[in-house]
Design goal:
Radius of gyration of chain B: 12 Å
Structural class of chain B: alpha+beta
CATH architecture of chain B: 2-Layer Sandwich
Largest interface: A-B, 18 and 16 residues
CATH architecture of the largest domain in chain A: 3-Layer(aba) Sandwich
CATH superfamily of the largest domain in chain A: NADH-ubiquinone oxidoreductase 51kDa subunit
Largest sheet of chain A: 5 strands, mixed
CATH topology of the largest domain in chain A: Rossmann fold
Low-confidence stretches of chain B: 69-87
Number of strands of chain B: 4
Mean pLDDT of chain B: 82
Helix content of chain A: 40-55%
Order of helices and strands of chain B: EHEEHEH
Distance between the termini of chain A: 42 Å
Low-confidence stretches of chain A: none
Strand content of chain B: 15-25%
Radius of gyration of chain A: 22 Å
Number of helices of chain B: 3
Shape of chain B: globular
Strand content of chain A: 5-15%
CATH class of the largest domain in chain A: Alpha Beta
Order of helices and strands of chain A: HHHEHHEHEHEHEEHEEHHEHHHHHH
Number of strands of chain A: 9
Number of domains of chain A: 3
Distance between the termini of chain B: 17 Å
Mean pLDDT of chain A: 95
Oligomer: heterodimer
Number of domains of chain B: 1
Shape of chain A: globular
Chain lengths: ~425, ~90
Amino acid sequence: MSLPRILLGVGADTMDYATHVRVHGELPDLGRRSRSGLPPPLVSELTRAALRGRGGGGFPLAAKLDTVQRAKGTPVVVVNATEGEPMSVKDRMLLEAVPHLVLDGAYAVADALGTRDVVIALDENLRDAEDVIRRAVAERPQGRRRDGQPRIVVVPAGYVTGHETAIVNFINKGVPRPMTQPPRISERGIGRRPTLMSNAETLAHAALIARHGAEWFRELGPGDEPGSALVTLSGGVRSPGVYEIEYGSHLASLVRAAGGVTEPARAFLFGGYAGTWIDAAAATTLRLSRDALRPLGASLGAGIIVALPQSACPVAEVTRVAGWMSDEGASQCGPCVNGLAAIADTLAEVCEGRGGRDAFNDILRWSELVVGRGACAHPDGAASFVTSALRVFATEFDDHAVHGACDACARRPVLITPRERSAVA
Amino acid sequence: MSFQIDLDPIKCEAHGLCAELLPERITLDEWGYPLIDDTPIPVSLEGLARRTVNACPTLALRLRAAANGPRGGGAAPARPSRSRTAG
């Protein structure tokens, strides 16, 4: 079977339960542990499917399940649909278009773990999706074991509030900030219980694997990275939006599916504001797989690609986002607080032609200095975004360092942060 | 069994005592936050490392049994015993 999988039968409206069952079939009961004590069939299917998390970490779901299963206490399953990345809209799309696929995945995994406790974590900006989920839950057949009432938690919007430890911290203590690990939430999370948290898309894939099996899942994509993925493609393309791609397919065919570029791209941003820039020249033959992206220091992250048009000013774009990322930190870890602020301030000076002769060396030094020194990976991501930009846009940065702002600096932003969004509204 | 030093970056408030007590393993960055060399601590430094951990005003440091094999290797992280930081 080919694409689409997750997006199969998706139209303008929310897919209701009857349509969902007609399109995908009933969710089989693979969650029960057999009498002989073997793990539930779902776990072995997920293991053979090698389904990896789609929230950015890329951790195998089966391994997560295994850790949670071994930990003491009744587990909690959390659907992470907190769309912290401003350039991603896939969580919104999933919740609003195919809520039953996400619910299926959550219930199937909860069954396999022998728990009924399911939490759906949304961020504030997805409040309208909350109603869609509630309606979807009410629509499902009653009296089925797996269809308990999920708890919906609305997490404050923010870049790091959707981090898994921040969600647990928020539910436990009302504090939406990341926590130091260990303990891992898979061992001690919500209410100190083992917590399986997974991205909404990952669970939607799990719902399909439960139906069609691992072999079916592996029919798409390379052997070591099977399956499909949702990608939010935006920037200078004719039809920005969420697309389902096969791992290993070409970036060029994704861009074609989006109607092509509106003008030649200068570069592509992979993985959002914690991601990596790739020069358009290097991107023309690029495949969308871990193997192809890793040598470039990049990954799809939560499934985000932005085409930066040639007419945009990369220096202004990068400087603006770096400032926002600095402000979006949780203000908890010193190196992140100080390092990201220093990087952002110096970039702003460079952008206006006021950066000193050491500006670039300083930025690179700080970027190296912050990596691995936060409770979460926020500083690492922000540093990757900036250092890859300095590499790919070296000409433009040098030009600004000498001449200051360019004509394109004041153009309408391509990279949006909630600041621009509220300015537009 | 050898140990290494873990830092809780949220608790750390850059008092800097650690770098004074254990310069063999801890230096400070330009903002005063510790940079920790996480290679295993030799027996000769163990007592000093323990004192350093206990001297941290915000209890941000912890001695942890070093993972076997190369850095970052090893299986699931051993459940950290809390008493180790206190004692």
